[in-house]
Amino acid sequence: RFIACPQLARTVRRCLQRGAGPGPQPLLLEFAPGPGILTRSLLDAGFRVVALESNSDFFADLQSLESSLDGQLKVIYGDFFRLDPLTKGALKPPAVSSDKIFEAMGVAAVPWRADVPVKIFGIVPQQLERNRLWRLLFALYECSSIYRYGRVELNLFISEKEYTVLTAKPGKSKIYQALTVLAQLGYEIELLHK
């Protein structure tokens, strides 16, 4: 669920920096950072990071790191895959509102033609992976949750099986599905690292 290898953290950092011009690095929402190995690498590269962590063991260490920095890191207790649940009333943590996250990040809504206001990085757990990908896609077409603020750049580790489905071409009857078509219409899918 998280990156534990410093070499992989450097590789991910390079992928996230790709295409960035001179000047400050963009704002990054990292979900489930775990022990913060990638987080530290991103901070060292000049990224401003909002870490969304639901594991209390890791949360305390990340808060300690946050307090040692001058606003470059914001840590929020929450679960990315429990963003904006469809229930009424107050949210019970680790469920969290995307409005709260974007407010903490200082990100305001922008038109869809504007630059991407935030990059999001995380590892999609293989348990219920397809359901989670569907939920992200559903939110995209509704312009809700993380997409309420404009376009976002999702940088996700997903299984090779789901990547194959997302990038299938017509004629591949076993893997070319509704998820394939809708994802290819809504997202610009690019393999960054394998």
TrEMBL record:
This is rRNA adenine N(6)-methyltransferase. GO terms for biological process: transcription initiation at mitochondrial promoter. Its main location: mitochondrion. Pfam families: RrnaAD. It is found in: Mitochondrion. S-adenosyl-L-methionine binds at residues 3, 53, 79. Its EC number is 2.1.1.-. Keywords: Methyltransferase, Mitochondrion, RNA-binding, rRNA processing, S-adenosyl-L-methionine, Transcription, Transcription regulation, Transferase, Transit peptide. GO terms for cellular component: mitochondrial matrix. It comes from the Eukaryota. Belongs to the class I-like SAM-binding methyltransferase superfamily. rRNA adenine N(6)-methyltransferase family. GO terms for molecular function: mitochondrial transcription factor activity; RNA binding; rRNA (adenine-N6,N6-)-dimethyltransferase activity. InterPro entries: KsgA/Erm (IPR001737), SAM-dependent_MTases_sf (IPR029063).
